[in-house]
Amino acid sequence: EFLSLSTVKGSQKCELNCRAIGYRFYVRQAEKVIDGTPCDQNGTSICVAGQCKSIGCDDYLGSDKVIDKCGICGGDNTACKVVSGVFKHTLTNLGYHKIVEIPEGATKINITEMSKSNNYLALRSRSGRSIINGNWAIDRPGRYEGGGTMFTYKRPNEISSTAGESFLADGPTNEVLDVYMIHQQPNPGIHYEYIIPGDNVISPQLLAQRRPGEPLNGQLGMPESTNHEDEDLYRETDTYTGQSAGTFPVIQPGRFPSHQPENQVPAVQTPRQNREHNWKQIGKTECTTTCGKGSQYPVFHCVNRITHEEVPESYCDSSTKPIPEEEACNLFPCPAFWDIGEWSECSKTCGLGMQHRQILCRQMYANRTLTVQQYRCHHLEKPETTSTCQLKICSEWQIRTEWTSCSVPCGVGQRTRDVKCVSNLGDIVDDEECNMKLRPNDIENCDMGPCAKSWFLTEWSDRCSAECGDGVRTRSVVCMTNHVSSLPLEGCGNNRPLETTPCNNAPCAGKVEWFAGGWTQCSTECGSGTQQREVICVRKTEGNFDVLNPYECSYLEKPPSQQSCYLKPCGSKWFHTEWSTCSKSCEGGFRVREVRCLSDDMTASNQCDPQLKPEEKEPCNTQDCVPEIDENCKDKYYNCNVVVQARLCVYTYYKTACCASCTRVANRQSGFLGRR
């Protein structure tokens, strides 16, 4: 494999060196590479006759021309004006706060948060159109068009990076833009910078004659009087070009000619170089970090060999200038700090909820951020990991009507009322918008006092007392206090319901003289019942029996044909009353009856099978109501609908003046309550 420029020393940059894959040694294949081969990382120098020569922005070898801050090759920085500053105001209220105004025609726009925070940058046009992070909606990092240019929105990784958010754009803008900060925690400072045309504006044609390979993301080179706090603003890597801000792309072999074209003016000759001057290290650059292992480079200047006074670099041989090599500095670790993650979504969509965030103890070393034990951050107050939040006010329950009258005239019945979920704007919304645990009851029992006694009955038994012939089925009947019917108060009365009913399971076959057949099964499965058997007078013949009239056997004692039986205790059984009158005469009402579980001794019990419990309530009178038409009930005003909407029908005057409208509303409400 060919060696990269970063692994080759200065005197060897224009040699052709190869290293075997997997080995450390390398072999020189040629003393010099093809002319025009790039020999530095930025592509601003090429190899010529085995020597690494720098190229000016005018594409001349040995030229010292550079692109000024206005983007002009060889310019003197007078064609434009750099506007920059830091917004460090202390903010108290949450929400959008204006930071800076970007004027029309601005270029090289750079808005950067000085350190990571939970705040967000936002951008809006003067016409009110949101470009980035508007209307409380946070956009994803990416490219967004606005103001006639393309903005690159960057948000570094919340865990692995301490850099803040940024907006970058080449410009120029075609309208005024406003930069905002969505304030959620203390402001870490917002650096802003852009360029506007100055008084000595150079022709746009000259601005267009920029050499290929300029920065693609619109970042400026570092100013002469910058400090290390500002350097971080210019060292971010462009997301889309993959190149470091302020660098040139690598120049391919043959990109620049090795000879001067005839139609170009030759570069100014540099002063004659001699041995009276040489390169001298006068110091080192500042360390890139104040802690956690940074880097610095020696600084070489051209000086007089005798007086050691600094002279222009052109007095020294540039080919002999030492290549600055990186040196480690400030090796001691940086103090640990709390790395604060983003807040999670609020646990409630409305009302008071909770949100959480991740807090890690981190430490910087060798340009890497490491997670360390939390005790290293004990010197700092740990930020809260949970917080209350409220996105909006929840809807609430409102009771819209009073309780209706009880569904029964005496005993235990039910009554209802209208309960609605109402939003904070006064609109009726779905019940799910309100807290269902706090919903007021819209139906409840009502006790209208004791009623008369009633007959309580069981269902008829399933079995007939006779397997064949006539038999009976039985049921239990008991008189008890009734809470739902409207019988007279004097009691159950003499009209006791029947306890037996006839049944027949087909004719039986005869047998012997006063011949008694087998007992039928008991008329009840449990408790007291009866058994039947057939008793006939027969005469036996050869192989047959002849049935005789009963008087033929009258001189014999006739066996009993019925007896009581008791198989086992019944235990508890369901008893119920008759149905009550219907609660409504039309449009669907309901009627009720009382159901009780009673034991063998007719006392209350809870041993009955719930699945066999008879219904206590059922609908009735479901037919539509036919409204009565009152000829005298009319609207006297044309705008009675306003009276209804304002709910003024409760007042006598409006109820009379808008009789028809108020009556229709009352009928609809009563019909709605009835259907409930």
Automatic annotation (TrEMBL):
Biased composition range(s): Polar residues: 260-272
Keywords: Disulfide bond, Extracellular matrix, Repeat, Secreted, Signal
Ranges of residues in domain PLAC: 629-666
InterPro entries: ADAMTS/ADAMTS-like, ADAMTS_ADAMTS-like, ADAMTS_CR_3, ADAMTS_spacer1, PLAC, TSP1_rpt, TSP1_rpt_sf
Subcellular location: Secreted, Extracellular space, Extracellular matrix
Main location: secreted
Originating organism: Hemiprocne comata
GO molecular function: metalloendopeptidase activity
Any Gene Ontology CC annotation: extracellular matrix
Superkingdom of the source species: Eukaryota
Region of interest: Disordered: 255-277
Entry-linked PROSITE patterns: PLAC, TSP1
SMART domains: TSP1 (SM00209)
GO biological process: extracellular matrix organization; proteolysis
Protein name: THSD4 protein
